[in-house]
Every structure is written in C-alpha cells, then in structure tokens.
UniProtKB/TrEMBL annotation:
Domain Alpha-D-phosphohexomutase alpha/beta/alpha, residue spans: 12-140, 268-379
Cofactor: how bound: Binds 1 Mg(2+) ion per subunit.
Function noted in UniProt: Catalyzes the conversion of glucosamine-6-phosphate to glucosamine-1-phosphate.
Residues in Alpha-D-phosphohexomutase C-terminal domain copies: 383-449
HAMAP family reported in the protein's UniProt record: GlmM_B
Enzyme class: isomerase
Catalytic activity: alpha-D-glucosamine 1-phosphate = D-glucosamine 6-phosphate
Any one GO BP annotation for this protein: carbohydrate metabolic process
Full protein name: Phosphoglucosamine mutase
Amino acid sequence: MDVKKSQAVRCLFGTDGVRDVANRGMMTPEMALRLGRAFILFLAERGIPRPRILLGRDTRRSGPMLEAALTSGMVSAGAQVRTLGIIPTPGVSYLLQEGEADGGAVISASHNPAEYNGIKFFDGAGFKLRDEDEAAIEDYLGDPLLDDWRPTGASIGETEPLLGGMDRYVLWLRECDPVGLRDGWTGVFDCAHGAACVPAKALVAGSPSSLRWIGDAPNGLNINEGVGVMHLSALSEEVLRARVPFGVAFDGDADRTLLCDSRGRVLDGDVILWVLARWLHGQGILGSGLVATVMSNLALEEKLQREGIRVFRCPVGDRYVLETMHREGSLLGGEQSGHVILRDWVRTGDGLCTALLFLRACRELEEDVDTLWDRFARYPQKLCNVKVRDRKAVMESPLLRETLGDAEAELKDRGRLLLRPSGTEPLIRVLVEARDVDLMGRVTDRIVQVLESIKG
C-alpha cells in the first residue's frame, strides 16, 4: 500500500492547525497576534497585499480573547477582517467557497476539552492550507520582516462583522436534503455545546421534524464535556430513552459527525462512508473511488470492492484525505472519526452536511438504519491512546521498534497494526485489527505495556 504524505517540516502546526491550552504555550494572545501577522505576510508575498479575511470561532470562553489578538495581528499587517462570531468551521469554508474573501481563520480546538483552543487557516477557495503553506507561515514567525513590516495611516487594515453569514450557510444546508426537511425527522441531535447549536436548530425551524436536543446549552466551559462525538454514550442513552430511530452527534466546531441507530449502536465514519460511497456510485458522481485513512476498518475496503468501488488509503488527517482525493480523482473521502468530505458539496469536513446527506442516502437506497451495524460486520479493532512525554523520542525507541517487528510477524496476514503519534495531543495511538479477538488483545496489550515503560 502506497501511503504518501507531504514532507513539509512544521513545528507549531499539527494535523489541524496550531493547538494548545488557551493562554499557555502556543495559544497565548501574543502568539495569536504573531500568527495573524505571519498569515497576512504569507498572503501579501503571494500577491495579495491587503487581503480580505473571514474569521470565525466556536463557543469556548477563550475564543473572544484569541479573536481580539488574532484580529489585531491581521489588521496591523493591513488585512480587512470580517468577523463571523460563533459559526461551524465548515461555515467559514462555505462562505470562502462562495467568494467572500481571500482567506479565512477559525479559532477552535474542535473535539478537545474547553481549556484548549486552536487556530487554523484557510485559503480563498475554502480549503485548509497545505503542509508547505503552514511551514511557510512558521518561517515568517522567525523572519525580521514580521516585526519590521508595519503599515501606517490608510494602509492599516480594518475589522467589521459580516452580517447574515450564518443565515446563508443554513440556507445552503437546507438544499442538501430538502425532502427530508419537508417530511421531517424524529431523532436526537447532540450539538456538543459547540458551534452546531445555532445552525442545527435553524436548519429544522419550520419543518415538521420532531427532534430532541442534548449538548445544546453552551456556557463557554462545557464544550465537548460529556457530550458530542467524543462521548457517544450520552447520545445512545438519549436515543434509547426517547425510543427514536436515530441520533446524530457533532464535535465542538461541527466538522465531524457520528450517528447511532435506534438500539444506541454507534455508526462511525466507516459506516457513513460505506453508505455514501454506494449512493454516489449509483448516481455516477463518486469519481474514481473512495479515499479512506489507514485507520478505516478492512471491512469497508472489502465490502466496497465487491461493489466495484476502489478504496485509496492515506495518512490520518482530513488534509491528507483531500490531497489524495485530488490526486486520485475521488469525490468522496473521510475518516473513521467522522470527518467526511463530499467534494461536490464541501471543501472540508462538514458534520451537518454529512448527516443530512447520509440520511438522504439511506432514504434513497431504501436502507434500514437499524440493519447497518450488523451488516457492516467490522473486523475486531482495538484503539488505545497512551499518554507520553515526548512523542518523537518514543517513536524512535529501539525497544519499540523490536516490539513492533515481533507483533507484525505474529499478525502476518491475519490482521494489521498501526502506531502513530497524535498531531494535537501528547499521545501515541495504537490500532490493532485482527479476525482473532484473542490475538488482537494480546498484541495490543504488549505494545501498550512497552509504550508505558518508555514514556519518552
């Protein structure tokens, strides 16, 4: 399997922007200001001297603090900043796709707890920046020009709110499944106390939908707390309690979605991709096939191949999903975690759009949501997150290399093993997949024990 990844060297940027505990480390107001200036300098030296920027954020208490700093940095470098307030990350991408600005930024730590925050940048077409672009922005942080380049007078930028941006995003979302909205749904929506709260409710306003809501009361400190895609038991329990056909959960910035059926069983990104790929293939708009990451279950690949649908594998991260989609000519890609990119609709993961199109696909394929979990029949898979001090040192450990070699020899053609450092947290992620549950558990336990003994 040929899994390609950009070789651009980045220190601050991870798999989804710069992220840290807010007001500490890499996510202080001072750093946000410098990142804002570096982003505008990056655009200016590429022929956009006074760029128009869209800026959104999620519901975290630290959001306004970082928004003020990031805006100040961009305006001091000559940018025209239009603020959107609280809005899903894909909402900013959609407005950029519609030609609203030359670039965008979102202040969010996505699925992380409330004490974290982050900054991610978009180009003028609504795509997240490439690795090499983020590496260039990091280079500007150490360039004397960053401090010397000081526009004055009329060359200083301005900031103003962009009114009606959320309304336009919601109107577009309604077009993703107008029949479903007209007929109405009965289910549970979990908004993770995040950016999905307002657009999700606006989406169904005026429709006959009978929805129950959880995670819909953000207070700045409860985003992702016990709810959302990271805590699906809350959704499953509410679906069982309410006796409704399905549930939908989002993360803090609404770029991911996961579902559960009426029995509370989780339908992860692999199941979502399985349904969407067959639906798009039937309409002739799938392109060359589906792009999935190395984390996706082997059952997904086997089932789609039987349908004549190719599956291309790529590293974890929605930017790498999109890169591979471009390279292979695919119009659908995504991750087991619920990041899904439907290229004819969006240019980044969009949880609301994905949920709407999944429900539409189930209806048009005449799928019974309650049968999907059983029919998918995934291979047993175990994922463990091991906390470490130094991800790089752990990954380079000779003891770990020896252990992995032994594990791969034991698995042979009966399963597979993946080990990767988290791009946003001090964790090493271990994934073992095998038909034999005992083998899977034995290999996983051995690797976790070695990681815990090393720590880094």
